[in-house]
Amino acid sequence: MDNIKKHLKKIDFVILLIMVILVCIGLYCIRQVSILSDDKEGLYTKQLIGAALGLIMIVVMLFIDYHLLCNLSFVLYIGILITLTFLLKFGDSTNNVKRWIVIMGIQFQPSELTKVTLILFLAFLCNFYKEKLSKFYVFYILATVTAIPAMLIILEPHLSSGMALLFIFCVMVYASGISYKIIGTVLAVIIPVAIGIVISVTLFNIKLPFIEQYQINRILTFNSTDENEDLSGKYQQNQALAAIASGGLPGKMIKEDDSTRIYSKIYANESDFIFSVVGEEFGFIGTSIVIFLYIILIIRCLIIASHAPDYMGKLICIGVSSLLIFQVFVNIGVASSLLPNTGLSLPFVSYGVTSLISSMLAVGLVLNIGSRRRNGLAPRNI
Fold first, then answer.
1. Which of 40, 131, 251, 341, CA to CA, is 20 to 30 A from 159?
2. What pLDDT score was predicted for residue 68?
3. Is 59 within the bounds of a domain?
4. Residue 159, domain extent
């Protein structure tokens, strides 16, 4: 009993509170979207159930040593690869994309679970090869482990989630202490290749096997001034900007009726463009608070990384932080027209039961590591 009390005292309740607040904001926005759209009824109930399941999983995870989860990460990784392969062959197809598997009426998105699994597996591998990080073959192993699920996800197609995995890989490998010689060599190869791909696609319209035409169109229409672009182009972002701007300083939550909402015209306003709902409902004050909460959440995760009990715990916290940074930046960037239209959820806020549970599990890992930190001391062997 004393051990449990000591364990609970070290839990970062600030992170837990921020997560709950963001989930509640998301639930409110999803409820508003459901009220204004007959074809989106039931989303609120599903998200509420997902939030409850996520909280239960966090409580369970707090009492499971994260070292055990890392030791099982290879099994989880293989399971994810099998699931992603199955998805491409037998997955539920919607609008010519295969991102969901439906079993007994329950829909889930494997790409979301892949992100958490990859963080665990990369942390395990970096710890296993810790004394050999100056060797090129270790980098190749880590890159291959990331590239396989990333390519399977890109083939769904879901380019933004594949890029999220690559971002997690880059941050975790850099934080692992890998040789700068390897980093420099890799950048010398990747940067020209990346520039060549961008030029080939945007200027010469060369078709690449892993990039769909609609993804190219989103990039080409990003700087368009045409207000009547189709739903996959600039129209979505124009409406999102209008919705955010219409919220003004205090938002419309109190002073106006539901019929005035601009975000009701936006496709995927419950997921990819949920930030437009936040902006119109809560105004500039509300959006500023949401962004501030994410900043505090990420900083708290990095603080736990700096006081993690070991090297592996540090890398997991950094991996989770990088996931949050990427998804928050891209989702808000798209809604505010700073980035081309893409399909990434806003952690804890966007609709998506798998996305919500995965984000909560990721934060649960950080809380797990934080509860095992040594009081006020720097971590060993970092």
1. 40
2. 94
3. yes
4. 2-370
Residue 178 resides in a domain: yes
Express each pLDDT in 86-106 by its tens digit.
Answer: 888 877 666 667 777 776 566
Q: Report the predicted TM-score, pTM, of the whole model to 2 decimal places.
A: 0.90
Residue 255 inside a domain? The answer is yes
The pairing of strands 92-94 and 97-103 is antiparallel
Distance (Å, rounded) from C-alpha 13 to C-alpha 369?
A: 13
349-363: pLDDT as tens digits: 999 999 999 999 999
In a domain, 378, yes or no: no
Q: Say if residue 381's pLDDT is above 50.
A: no
State how many domains the chain has: 1
Most confidently modeled range among 153-157, 223-227, 348-352, 369-373: 348-352
